[in-house]
Amino acid sequence: MNTKSFFIGCVALLMAGLTAQSCKAKEEAKSEETDGQSLLVVERQQTQFYVGDEWKHDLTFIVDVPIAGSQVLKDSVNAFLNEQLYRFMESQVGQYDDEGKYTKTKSFDEVRTGDSGKLLKHYLGIYQPYMEKQVDWTFTFSITILAQTDNFVTYGVFHYRCGAMCSDEMSCYTFSKKDGHRLRDIISKEDLTKYFAGHKEIEEKYKEDDEGEERNVDLAQFWDSDRIALLEDQVLYAVNGMASHYTCETFDYKDILPYLSKEAQAFVNERGDKAHFPLKEWFMGQQLGQVVSDAGDTIYIAEREFGYEIINDCEPNFSHFNDTELLTYICKNGQYIPYEGFKSGDKSMSAVLLDTPDDGMYLEESKALASGEGQGKIHSFDKDKRELQVRYLTGETSGDNPETKLRIYRFDGKQFVDTGKDVQ
Predict the structure, then answer these.
(1) Which pTM value belongs to this model?
(2) Is the N end or the C end of the chain the one with fewer CB atoms within 10 Å?
(3) Could you give the C-alpha distances from 10 to 3, 19, 20, 21, 417, in angstroms and in order?
(4) CA distance 367 to 380
């Protein structure tokens, strides 16, 4: 074989190899997507603290932060979370000067962060000292994921405030899983007006105000691009401005689809089956802490509250009326996998479920709820002792409420083992 032929043969082999590698990479990417890598997995970060001297006011923050999924979507959502947190923090502590000009405490470039694992802690480290001096009211600020399908995720932003009077508001945002962009043109105000014209029964519900007085209602007047979002089977419309509390309307796709923008229609038609993304596969709850096993695995401990739906009447659920699950998992190749971290008797399990009685259960509130610092709403983790305090129902009642106790589970290097002892 001459030199020229040998060179051509080498190039051909190289190109074939590159093609094979390219095909292999595409197949692996496709395989990863079908194996659940298209899931946006979120972890809930939350904190509660108190402000005020004579009267104590609780301030609560809840944020669902991406911990796994496509990088472009995680980047987009993390940018959104930074923007929302910054805007809210500044709205609470910014000042007006003598001339009435609004002055921000910090610039966005000063405070935004790429460390999503400590996102809420980062912002509170900057703004909590200002709030402790300036805020004299109660509020809850929540940014939580509302829906996830094959091709989009939707977040809801909730703000509840109670001072001289109480009020709340909501906004909602849908993001493309493909490239992370936000769907801004879901339905125009004009097309929403046309939809209401053919569905008079929707506005009929608002014909009377809280005092029973009749009023003319034009729900479309409250339209804004951040008041409309896509859910698994419906369009969500957050109505702010009619009164001091927001209301939600949801419209089935079979009715409203013709009124949506072309882009929104395409997203609805390609959303897939909502059974593809069960809540338990992508909502990891609030992390209480981590422990390293004797085998070198990092075991995550989390507390997860969930009901039958992720949202109930489009309102965030901050009560203890849902079942609560204490779970352990590990992370392998970017996927979060259940880990049988609990042992009681001969039984090993990856989660312990606290069933809430139908009539509700009132549990003692913690004075400080902080993600990753061991204290959940119901269970807790002592990282120094490597012990879990797991709340359970005793079967007895205390007054009119079911009685609960905290059982101690101690880590033996592999699992948290039920000691049979309760916290005294």
Answers:
(1) 0.84
(2) C
(3) 11, 14, 15, 16, 61
(4) 13
Strands (E), 293-341: 298-306, 323-332, 335-338
pLDDT value at position 314? 46
Task: Answer yes or no: are the C-beta atoms of 416 and 388 closer than 8 Å.
Answer: yes
The per-residue pLDDT for 20 is 45
Separation of alpha carbons 278 and 303, rounded Å: 17
Q: Please name every residue paired with 306 in a beta bridge, in sequence order, or none if there are none.
A: 323
Task: Tell me how far apart the alpha carbons of residues 286 and 9 are, in angstroms, rounded to a whole number.
Answer: 58
Q: Is 363 helix (H, G, I), strand (E, B) or coil?
A: coil
pLDDT for 215-224, tens place per residue?
Answer: 667 899 999 9
In a 10 Å sphere around its CB, with 0-12 CB exposed, 13-18 middle and 19+ buried, how is residue 265 labelled?
Answer: middle
Measure CA 286 to chain center: 10
Beta pairing, strands 102-103 & 138-148: unpaired
Q: Quick one: which of 230, 233, 247 has its CA closest to 170?
A: 247
Whether residue 151 is predicted with pLDDT greater than 50 in this model: the reply is yes
Spatial distance between the Cα atoms of 283 and 304, rounded to a whole number of angstroms: 8
Mean pLDDT confidence for 269-286:
89
Helix 119-134 × helix 71-93 angle, to 10°:
10
Whether the predicted pLDDT of 262 surpasses 60: yes
Confidence (pLDDT) at 212: 59
Look up residue 406 and give its amino acid. L
With 0-12 CB in 10 A as exposed, 13-18 as middle and 19+ as buried, what is 52? middle
Residues 335-345, mean pLDDT to the nearest whole number: 93
Query: Would you say residue 309 has pLDDT above 50?
Result: no
Output the CA–CA distances (angstroms, integers) from residue 240 to 217, 228, 304, in the order listed.
13, 11, 30
CA 290, 294, 300: angle at the middle one, nearest 5? 20
Predicted local distance difference test score (pLDDT) of residue 315: 46
> Mean pLDDT, to the nearest integer, of 29-36?
40
